[in-house]
From TrEMBL:
Transmembrane segments: none
Protein name per UniProt: Circularly permuted type 2 ATP-grasp protein
Residue span(s) of domain Circularly permuted ATP-grasp type: 71-447
Pfam families on file: CP_ATPgrasp_2 (PF14403)
Length: 471
Protein backbone atom coordinates (compact mmCIF):
# COMPACT_ATOMS: atom_id res chain seq x y z
CA UNK A 1 0.00 0.00 0.00
CA UNK A 2 1.30 3.44 -0.93
CA UNK A 3 2.02 5.73 2.00
CA UNK A 4 2.76 8.83 -0.09
CA UNK A 5 -0.23 11.13 -0.36
CA UNK A 6 -0.71 14.33 -2.29
CA UNK A 7 -1.07 17.16 0.22
CA UNK A 8 -3.38 19.76 -1.30
CA UNK A 9 -1.92 22.57 0.82
CA UNK A 10 1.83 21.87 0.68
CA UNK A 11 4.09 21.02 -2.25
CA UNK A 12 7.57 19.90 -1.12
CA UNK A 13 7.22 22.01 2.00
CA UNK A 14 5.98 25.12 0.18
CA UNK A 15 2.44 26.48 0.52
CA UNK A 16 0.46 25.89 -2.68
CA UNK A 17 -0.89 29.17 -4.00
CA UNK A 18 -4.64 28.41 -3.47
CA UNK A 19 -4.02 28.02 0.27
CA UNK A 20 -1.71 31.03 0.78
CA UNK A 21 -4.27 33.19 2.59
CA UNK A 22 -5.58 30.29 4.66
CA UNK A 23 -2.15 29.45 6.04
CA UNK A 24 -1.93 32.90 7.65
CA UNK A 25 -5.54 32.67 8.84
CA UNK A 26 -5.09 29.37 10.67
CA UNK A 27 -1.64 30.27 12.04
CA UNK A 28 -2.88 33.51 13.57
CA UNK A 29 -6.01 32.00 15.12
CA UNK A 30 -5.54 31.42 18.87
CA UNK A 31 -6.58 28.04 20.20
CA UNK A 32 -9.24 29.66 22.40
CA UNK A 33 -10.83 31.39 19.40
CA UNK A 34 -10.75 28.17 17.38
CA UNK A 35 -12.51 26.30 20.18
CA UNK A 36 -15.08 29.08 20.44
CA UNK A 37 -15.74 29.07 16.69
CA UNK A 38 -16.01 25.27 16.61
CA UNK A 39 -18.60 25.38 19.40
CA UNK A 40 -20.44 28.15 17.53
CA UNK A 41 -20.53 26.06 14.35
CA UNK A 42 -21.91 23.05 16.21
CA UNK A 43 -24.55 25.22 17.88
CA UNK A 44 -25.60 26.62 14.50
CA UNK A 45 -25.86 23.16 12.96
CA UNK A 46 -27.94 21.94 15.89
CA UNK A 47 -30.19 25.02 15.92
CA UNK A 48 -30.85 24.78 12.21
CA UNK A 49 -31.49 21.07 12.59
CA UNK A 50 -28.83 19.67 10.25
CA UNK A 51 -28.66 16.07 11.39
CA UNK A 52 -28.57 12.66 9.80
CA UNK A 53 -30.18 9.56 11.24
CA UNK A 54 -28.38 6.34 12.19
CA UNK A 55 -30.67 3.56 13.35
CA UNK A 56 -29.77 0.31 15.06
CA UNK A 57 -26.82 1.60 17.10
CA UNK A 58 -28.71 2.69 20.20
CA UNK A 59 -28.97 6.17 21.67
CA UNK A 60 -30.32 9.18 19.82
CA UNK A 61 -30.58 8.24 16.12
CA UNK A 62 -30.22 11.89 15.03
CA UNK A 63 -26.52 12.69 14.80
CA UNK A 64 -24.75 15.97 14.20
CA UNK A 65 -22.33 15.57 11.32
CA UNK A 66 -18.82 16.73 12.31
CA UNK A 67 -17.91 20.00 10.58
CA UNK A 68 -14.31 20.97 9.95
CA UNK A 69 -13.76 24.72 9.62
CA UNK A 70 -10.66 24.50 7.40
CA UNK A 71 -11.94 24.94 3.81
CA UNK A 72 -10.81 22.85 0.86
CA UNK A 73 -9.70 24.97 -2.11
CA UNK A 74 -9.65 24.43 -5.89
CA UNK A 75 -8.23 26.85 -8.42
CA UNK A 76 -10.41 28.08 -11.27
CA UNK A 77 -8.36 26.00 -13.72
CA UNK A 78 -8.72 22.80 -11.68
CA UNK A 79 -12.45 23.30 -11.44
CA UNK A 80 -12.87 24.04 -15.15
CA UNK A 81 -11.39 20.66 -16.04
CA UNK A 82 -13.50 18.87 -13.42
CA UNK A 83 -16.66 20.64 -14.63
CA UNK A 84 -16.07 19.54 -18.22
CA UNK A 85 -15.49 15.95 -17.13
CA UNK A 86 -18.52 15.82 -14.83
CA UNK A 87 -20.87 17.22 -17.48
CA UNK A 88 -19.49 14.79 -20.05
CA UNK A 89 -20.10 11.88 -17.70
CA UNK A 90 -23.65 13.03 -16.88
CA UNK A 91 -24.47 13.21 -20.60
CA UNK A 92 -23.11 9.71 -21.22
CA UNK A 93 -24.98 8.20 -18.24
CA UNK A 94 -28.27 9.68 -19.43
CA UNK A 95 -27.64 8.46 -22.98
CA UNK A 96 -27.02 4.98 -21.57
CA UNK A 97 -30.28 5.01 -19.61
CA UNK A 98 -32.25 6.20 -22.62
CA UNK A 99 -30.64 3.46 -24.71
CA UNK A 100 -31.05 0.45 -22.38
CA UNK A 101 -34.70 1.21 -21.68
CA UNK A 102 -35.36 1.36 -25.41
CA UNK A 103 -33.27 -0.24 -28.19
CA UNK A 104 -30.25 -1.32 -26.14
CA UNK A 105 -27.74 -0.48 -28.86
CA UNK A 106 -24.74 -0.55 -26.52
CA UNK A 107 -25.61 -4.12 -25.52
CA UNK A 108 -26.22 -5.15 -29.14
CA UNK A 109 -22.82 -3.74 -30.03
CA UNK A 110 -21.18 -5.95 -27.41
CA UNK A 111 -19.83 -3.04 -25.40
CA UNK A 112 -21.60 -4.05 -22.15
CA UNK A 113 -22.66 -7.62 -21.22
CA UNK A 114 -26.46 -8.02 -21.37
CA UNK A 115 -26.57 -9.77 -17.98
CA UNK A 116 -25.10 -6.72 -16.21
CA UNK A 117 -27.95 -4.58 -17.51
CA UNK A 118 -31.04 -6.76 -17.85
CA UNK A 119 -30.41 -9.03 -14.86
CA UNK A 120 -29.42 -6.09 -12.67
CA UNK A 121 -31.69 -5.66 -9.65
CA UNK A 122 -31.81 -1.90 -10.34
CA UNK A 123 -33.16 -2.43 -13.89
CA UNK A 124 -36.90 -1.75 -13.89
CA UNK A 125 -38.79 -3.56 -16.67
CA UNK A 126 -41.80 -1.32 -16.03
CA UNK A 127 -39.82 1.62 -17.45
CA UNK A 128 -38.99 -0.04 -20.77
CA UNK A 129 -40.29 1.96 -23.71
CA UNK A 130 -40.98 5.09 -21.63
CA UNK A 131 -39.18 8.19 -22.88
CA UNK A 132 -39.30 10.95 -20.27
CA UNK A 133 -39.31 14.63 -21.18
CA UNK A 134 -36.09 15.73 -22.94
CA UNK A 135 -34.91 12.06 -22.69
CA UNK A 136 -33.46 12.84 -19.26
CA UNK A 137 -33.55 9.96 -16.79
CA UNK A 138 -31.10 11.12 -14.12
CA UNK A 139 -31.70 14.78 -13.31
CA UNK A 140 -29.34 15.13 -10.33
CA UNK A 141 -26.08 13.24 -10.85
CA UNK A 142 -23.68 13.09 -7.92
CA UNK A 143 -20.19 12.15 -9.09
CA UNK A 144 -17.85 11.03 -6.28
CA UNK A 145 -14.28 12.09 -7.04
CA UNK A 146 -10.93 11.46 -5.42
CA UNK A 147 -7.63 13.18 -6.04
CA UNK A 148 -4.24 11.48 -6.05
CA UNK A 149 -1.96 14.20 -7.43
CA UNK A 150 -1.75 17.80 -8.68
CA UNK A 151 -3.54 16.88 -11.93
CA UNK A 152 -4.85 13.41 -11.08
CA UNK A 153 -8.55 12.97 -10.41
CA UNK A 154 -10.50 9.72 -10.52
CA UNK A 155 -14.22 8.97 -10.40
CA UNK A 156 -14.90 6.66 -7.48
CA UNK A 157 -18.58 6.12 -8.23
CA UNK A 158 -21.64 7.66 -9.85
CA UNK A 159 -24.93 8.44 -8.07
CA UNK A 160 -27.83 8.66 -10.52
CA UNK A 161 -30.83 8.09 -8.25
CA UNK A 162 -31.21 10.49 -5.32
CA UNK A 163 -27.71 11.66 -4.29
CA UNK A 164 -27.82 13.25 -0.86
CA UNK A 165 -25.62 15.78 0.91
CA UNK A 166 -26.29 18.97 -1.03
CA UNK A 167 -27.77 20.61 2.08
CA UNK A 168 -24.36 20.28 3.73
CA UNK A 169 -22.68 21.92 0.74
CA UNK A 170 -24.99 24.92 1.14
CA UNK A 171 -25.00 25.13 4.92
CA UNK A 172 -21.22 24.66 5.20
CA UNK A 173 -20.84 27.80 3.09
CA UNK A 174 -23.52 29.72 4.97
CA UNK A 175 -21.94 28.97 8.35
CA UNK A 176 -18.40 29.77 7.17
CA UNK A 177 -19.56 33.13 5.78
CA UNK A 178 -21.31 33.91 9.05
CA UNK A 179 -18.34 32.98 11.25
CA UNK A 180 -15.45 34.24 9.11
CA UNK A 181 -16.71 37.14 6.93
CA UNK A 182 -13.17 38.54 6.61
CA UNK A 183 -12.04 35.36 4.87
CA UNK A 184 -14.60 35.92 2.14
CA UNK A 185 -13.69 39.57 1.76
CA UNK A 186 -10.04 38.58 1.31
CA UNK A 187 -10.62 35.73 -1.15
CA UNK A 188 -12.55 35.66 -4.43
CA UNK A 189 -14.67 32.56 -3.93
CA UNK A 190 -17.25 31.43 -6.50
CA UNK A 191 -20.77 31.21 -4.98
CA UNK A 192 -22.82 28.04 -4.53
CA UNK A 193 -26.00 29.76 -3.34
CA UNK A 194 -27.63 29.48 -6.78
CA UNK A 195 -28.09 25.73 -6.43
CA UNK A 196 -31.74 25.73 -5.22
CA UNK A 197 -32.76 28.12 -8.03
CA UNK A 198 -30.88 26.02 -10.58
CA UNK A 199 -32.48 22.85 -9.24
CA UNK A 200 -35.98 24.29 -9.55
CA UNK A 201 -35.22 25.61 -13.03
CA UNK A 202 -33.86 22.18 -14.05
CA UNK A 203 -36.92 20.34 -12.72
CA UNK A 204 -39.33 22.80 -14.36
CA UNK A 205 -37.49 22.45 -17.68
CA UNK A 206 -38.36 18.73 -17.89
CA UNK A 207 -42.07 19.16 -17.16
CA UNK A 208 -44.19 17.01 -19.52
CA UNK A 209 -45.79 18.61 -22.60
CA UNK A 210 -49.25 18.23 -21.02
CA UNK A 211 -48.44 20.64 -18.20
CA UNK A 212 -49.26 24.33 -17.90
CA UNK A 213 -46.77 27.10 -18.68
CA UNK A 214 -45.88 27.36 -14.97
CA UNK A 215 -45.20 23.76 -13.85
CA UNK A 216 -45.99 22.67 -10.31
CA UNK A 217 -42.95 21.00 -8.76
CA UNK A 218 -43.02 19.03 -5.49
CA UNK A 219 -40.50 17.06 -3.45
CA UNK A 220 -41.71 13.59 -2.45
CA UNK A 221 -40.25 12.41 0.87
CA UNK A 222 -40.71 9.12 2.74
CA UNK A 223 -41.26 11.17 5.88
CA UNK A 224 -39.44 12.42 8.94
CA UNK A 225 -37.99 9.02 9.86
CA UNK A 226 -35.83 9.07 6.72
CA UNK A 227 -32.13 9.78 7.36
CA UNK A 228 -32.12 12.64 4.83
CA UNK A 229 -35.45 14.21 5.83
CA UNK A 230 -33.76 17.44 6.90
CA UNK A 231 -32.39 17.84 3.39
CA UNK A 232 -35.79 17.21 1.80
CA UNK A 233 -37.46 19.94 3.87
CA UNK A 234 -34.45 22.25 3.49
CA UNK A 235 -34.52 22.07 -0.31
CA UNK A 236 -38.30 22.43 -0.49
CA UNK A 237 -38.06 25.59 1.58
CA UNK A 238 -35.23 27.11 -0.48
CA UNK A 239 -36.89 26.19 -3.78
CA UNK A 240 -40.30 27.46 -2.70
CA UNK A 241 -42.06 24.19 -3.50
CA UNK A 242 -44.25 21.85 -1.47
CA UNK A 243 -42.75 18.97 0.49
CA UNK A 244 -45.20 16.08 0.19
CA UNK A 245 -45.60 12.50 1.30
CA UNK A 246 -47.36 9.81 -0.69
CA UNK A 247 -50.66 10.36 1.12
CA UNK A 248 -50.69 14.00 -0.07
CA UNK A 249 -50.86 12.93 -3.74
CA UNK A 250 -53.36 10.88 -5.72
CA UNK A 251 -54.03 9.88 -9.31
CA UNK A 252 -57.20 10.77 -11.17
CA UNK A 253 -57.65 10.62 -14.89
CA UNK A 254 -54.34 11.15 -16.70
CA UNK A 255 -52.77 13.31 -14.03
CA UNK A 256 -51.36 13.36 -10.51
CA UNK A 257 -53.00 15.68 -8.00
CA UNK A 258 -51.98 17.23 -4.69
CA UNK A 259 -54.43 17.70 -1.85
CA UNK A 260 -54.42 21.32 -0.66
CA UNK A 261 -56.63 23.46 1.57
CA UNK A 262 -57.85 25.21 -1.62
CA UNK A 263 -58.73 21.91 -3.29
CA UNK A 264 -56.89 19.61 -5.71
CA UNK A 265 -53.86 20.99 -7.55
CA UNK A 266 -52.26 19.25 -10.53
CA UNK A 267 -48.64 18.19 -10.04
CA UNK A 268 -46.33 18.25 -13.06
CA UNK A 269 -42.90 17.32 -11.70
CA UNK A 270 -42.10 15.09 -8.72
CA UNK A 271 -38.56 15.26 -7.34
CA UNK A 272 -38.74 11.95 -5.56
CA UNK A 273 -36.52 11.10 -2.62
CA UNK A 274 -37.93 7.61 -2.14
CA UNK A 275 -36.60 4.38 -3.63
CA UNK A 276 -38.03 2.82 -6.80
CA UNK A 277 -39.68 -0.05 -4.92
CA UNK A 278 -41.95 2.31 -2.99
CA UNK A 279 -43.04 4.75 -5.74
CA UNK A 280 -46.23 2.96 -6.83
CA UNK A 281 -47.72 -0.06 -5.03
CA UNK A 282 -49.65 -1.03 -8.18
CA UNK A 283 -46.39 -1.34 -10.14
CA UNK A 284 -43.65 -2.15 -7.64
CA UNK A 285 -43.95 -3.30 -4.00
CA UNK A 286 -47.66 -3.84 -3.27
CA UNK A 287 -47.10 -3.28 0.46
CA UNK A 288 -45.67 0.22 -0.01
CA UNK A 289 -47.39 2.87 2.06
CA UNK A 290 -45.05 5.62 0.82
CA UNK A 291 -46.00 5.88 -2.84
CA UNK A 292 -48.94 6.88 -5.01
CA UNK A 293 -51.13 4.09 -6.50
CA UNK A 294 -51.31 4.44 -10.28
CA UNK A 295 -48.48 6.98 -10.56
CA UNK A 296 -46.54 4.89 -13.09
CA UNK A 297 -49.53 4.86 -15.45
CA UNK A 298 -49.59 8.66 -15.38
CA UNK A 299 -45.82 8.74 -15.88
CA UNK A 300 -46.09 6.34 -18.81
CA UNK A 301 -48.78 8.48 -20.48
CA UNK A 302 -46.75 11.68 -20.10
CA UNK A 303 -48.93 13.27 -17.42
CA UNK A 304 -46.16 13.73 -14.85
CA UNK A 305 -42.37 13.73 -14.73
CA UNK A 306 -40.59 11.73 -12.02
CA UNK A 307 -37.08 12.97 -11.20
CA UNK A 308 -34.94 10.99 -11.26
CA UNK A 309 -36.70 8.36 -13.36
CA UNK A 310 -37.50 4.97 -11.86
CA UNK A 311 -34.80 2.56 -12.97
CA UNK A 312 -32.07 5.22 -13.13
CA UNK A 313 -30.09 3.19 -10.60
CA UNK A 314 -28.94 0.74 -13.23
CA UNK A 315 -26.50 3.42 -14.40
CA UNK A 316 -24.76 3.79 -11.04
CA UNK A 317 -24.35 0.12 -10.25
CA UNK A 318 -20.72 -0.56 -9.30
CA UNK A 319 -20.41 -3.25 -11.98
CA UNK A 320 -21.83 -0.92 -14.67
CA UNK A 321 -19.41 1.79 -13.45
CA UNK A 322 -16.57 -0.13 -15.12
CA UNK A 323 -18.09 0.62 -18.52
CA UNK A 324 -18.79 4.36 -18.17
CA UNK A 325 -15.64 5.36 -20.13
CA UNK A 326 -16.89 3.12 -22.93
CA UNK A 327 -20.30 4.86 -22.74
CA UNK A 328 -18.55 8.20 -23.30
CA UNK A 329 -16.88 6.84 -26.44
CA UNK A 330 -19.98 5.01 -27.69
CA UNK A 331 -22.60 7.74 -27.24
CA UNK A 332 -20.57 10.94 -27.43
CA UNK A 333 -17.67 9.96 -29.70
CA UNK A 334 -15.26 11.53 -27.21
CA UNK A 335 -12.46 10.36 -24.97
CA UNK A 336 -13.28 10.47 -21.23
CA UNK A 337 -11.97 13.57 -19.48
CA UNK A 338 -12.20 11.90 -16.06
CA UNK A 339 -10.84 8.41 -15.54
CA UNK A 340 -12.28 5.52 -13.56
CA UNK A 341 -10.38 3.79 -10.78
CA UNK A 342 -9.05 0.46 -12.18
CA UNK A 343 -11.66 -2.13 -11.24
CA UNK A 344 -11.81 -5.94 -11.13
CA UNK A 345 -15.18 -7.68 -11.40
CA UNK A 346 -15.22 -10.80 -9.27
CA UNK A 347 -17.80 -12.39 -11.62
CA UNK A 348 -15.06 -12.64 -14.28
CA UNK A 349 -12.88 -15.72 -13.58
CA UNK A 350 -9.54 -13.99 -14.27
CA UNK A 351 -10.52 -11.00 -12.13
CA UNK A 352 -11.75 -13.31 -9.37
CA UNK A 353 -8.43 -15.14 -9.31
CA UNK A 354 -6.50 -11.87 -9.11
CA UNK A 355 -8.69 -10.49 -6.32
CA UNK A 356 -8.44 -13.63 -4.21
CA UNK A 357 -4.66 -13.70 -4.61
CA UNK A 358 -4.29 -10.01 -3.65
CA UNK A 359 -7.13 -9.48 -1.20
CA UNK A 360 -4.87 -7.90 1.42
CA UNK A 361 -3.91 -5.12 -1.03
CA UNK A 362 -7.34 -4.23 -2.45
CA UNK A 363 -10.56 -2.44 -1.54
CA UNK A 364 -13.51 -4.77 -2.15
CA UNK A 365 -17.07 -3.40 -2.41
CA UNK A 366 -20.54 -4.84 -2.74
CA UNK A 367 -21.96 -4.03 -6.16
CA UNK A 368 -25.10 -2.56 -4.57
CA UNK A 369 -23.51 -1.33 -1.33
CA UNK A 370 -23.41 2.27 -0.15
CA UNK A 371 -22.54 4.44 2.83
CA UNK A 372 -19.21 2.73 3.44
CA UNK A 373 -20.92 -0.51 4.46
CA UNK A 374 -20.29 -3.96 2.98
CA UNK A 375 -16.71 -3.17 2.00
CA UNK A 376 -13.26 -4.43 2.87
CA UNK A 377 -10.11 -2.31 2.99
CA UNK A 378 -7.55 -5.08 2.57
CA UNK A 379 -4.41 -3.34 3.90
CA UNK A 380 -6.23 -2.44 7.14
CA UNK A 381 -8.07 -5.75 7.63
CA UNK A 382 -7.09 -8.49 10.06
CA UNK A 383 -6.38 -12.04 8.94
CA UNK A 384 -9.78 -13.12 10.24
CA UNK A 385 -11.56 -10.31 8.39
CA UNK A 386 -9.77 -11.23 5.16
CA UNK A 387 -10.77 -14.88 5.50
CA UNK A 388 -14.39 -14.02 6.28
CA UNK A 389 -14.64 -11.67 3.29
CA UNK A 390 -12.98 -14.20 1.00
CA UNK A 391 -15.73 -16.64 1.97
CA UNK A 392 -18.40 -14.05 1.02
CA UNK A 393 -16.77 -13.46 -2.36
CA UNK A 394 -16.57 -17.18 -3.11
CA UNK A 395 -20.28 -17.57 -2.30
CA UNK A 396 -21.43 -14.71 -4.54
CA UNK A 397 -18.59 -13.45 -6.75
CA UNK A 398 -21.01 -11.48 -8.95
CA UNK A 399 -21.87 -9.35 -5.90
CA UNK A 400 -18.38 -7.82 -5.57
CA UNK A 401 -15.90 -5.60 -7.35
CA UNK A 402 -12.37 -4.73 -6.23
CA UNK A 403 -10.15 -1.70 -6.69
CA UNK A 404 -6.61 -0.75 -5.70
CA UNK A 405 -6.17 1.14 -2.45
CA UNK A 406 -5.80 4.69 -3.76
CA UNK A 407 -3.49 7.25 -2.23
CA UNK A 408 -6.31 9.73 -1.55
CA UNK A 409 -5.17 13.32 -1.27
CA UNK A 410 -5.18 15.03 2.10
CA UNK A 411 -6.40 18.45 3.19
CA UNK A 412 -5.46 20.44 6.29
CA UNK A 413 -7.98 19.72 9.02
CA UNK A 414 -8.39 21.09 12.52
CA UNK A 415 -7.58 18.43 15.10
CA UNK A 416 -7.20 18.55 18.87
CA UNK A 417 -3.54 19.61 18.75
CA UNK A 418 -3.70 22.02 15.81
CA UNK A 419 -3.87 21.25 12.09
CA UNK A 420 -3.15 17.89 10.46
CA UNK A 421 -3.70 16.30 7.03
CA UNK A 422 -6.80 14.11 6.63
CA UNK A 423 -8.06 12.20 3.57
CA UNK A 424 -10.93 13.70 1.54
CA UNK A 425 -13.21 13.05 -1.40
CA UNK A 426 -15.61 15.32 -3.32
CA UNK A 427 -19.21 15.03 -4.50
CA UNK A 428 -20.27 17.77 -6.96
CA UNK A 429 -23.93 17.86 -8.01
CA UNK A 430 -24.66 18.01 -11.74
CA UNK A 431 -28.16 19.13 -12.76
CA UNK A 432 -29.47 17.76 -16.06
CA UNK A 433 -32.52 19.27 -17.78
CA UNK A 434 -32.75 21.16 -21.06
CA UNK A 435 -29.25 22.36 -20.11
CA UNK A 436 -26.58 20.89 -17.82
CA UNK A 437 -25.70 23.03 -14.82
CA UNK A 438 -23.06 22.72 -12.12
CA UNK A 439 -22.42 25.12 -9.24
CA UNK A 440 -18.69 25.70 -8.54
CA UNK A 441 -18.22 23.52 -5.51
CA UNK A 442 -19.59 20.38 -3.92
CA UNK A 443 -19.59 18.35 -0.77
CA UNK A 444 -16.11 17.60 0.56
CA UNK A 445 -16.19 14.69 2.98
CA UNK A 446 -13.24 14.16 5.29
CA UNK A 447 -12.04 11.07 7.16
CA UNK A 448 -11.47 12.60 10.60
CA UNK A 449 -9.74 9.54 12.05
CA UNK A 450 -5.99 9.66 11.42
CA UNK A 451 -5.03 7.30 8.60
CA UNK A 452 -8.64 6.40 7.75
CA UNK A 453 -9.78 6.37 4.11
CA UNK A 454 -13.52 6.07 4.92
CA UNK A 455 -15.20 9.47 4.63
CA UNK A 456 -18.86 8.49 5.03
CA UNK A 457 -20.71 10.32 7.81
CA UNK A 458 -22.21 7.04 9.02
CA UNK A 459 -18.65 5.76 9.47
CA UNK A 460 -17.27 8.73 11.42
CA UNK A 461 -16.49 11.12 8.57
CA UNK A 462 -17.10 14.86 8.56
CA UNK A 463 -17.64 17.67 6.05
CA UNK A 464 -15.84 20.83 4.88
CA UNK A 465 -16.71 23.92 2.90
CA UNK A 466 -15.43 23.58 -0.67
CA UNK A 467 -14.02 26.69 -2.32
CA UNK A 468 -13.49 27.30 -6.01
CA UNK A 469 -11.45 30.45 -6.53
CA UNK A 470 -12.92 32.84 -9.07
CA UNK A 471 -10.86 33.69 -12.13
Amino acid sequence: MSTTYFNEMYDRGEIRLPYANLETWQRDMPQELRNLKQAEAEALFRRIGITFAVYGEGGDPDRLIPFDMFPRVFTHGEWTRLERGIKQRARALNAFLCDVYNRGEIVRAGKIPARLVYQNEAFEKAVCGIKPSKNVYSHIVGIDLVRTGPDEFFVLEDNCRTPSGVSYMLENREIMMRMFPDLFRGNRIAPVERYPDLLRKTLASVAPPKCDSDPTVVILTPGHFNSAYYEHSFLADLMGVELVEGADLYVEGDFCWMRTTQGPKKVDVIYRRIDDAFIDPLCFRPDSMLGIPGLMNVYRSGGVQICSAPGAGVADDKAIYTFVPEMVRFYLGEEPILQNVPTWQCAIPEDFAYVMANLDELVVKEVHGSGGYGMLIGPRASKGELEAFAHKIRERPENYIAQPTLALSTCPTFVKDGVAPRHVDLRPYCLVGDTIELVPGGLTRVALTEGSLVVNSSQGGGVKDTWVLAE
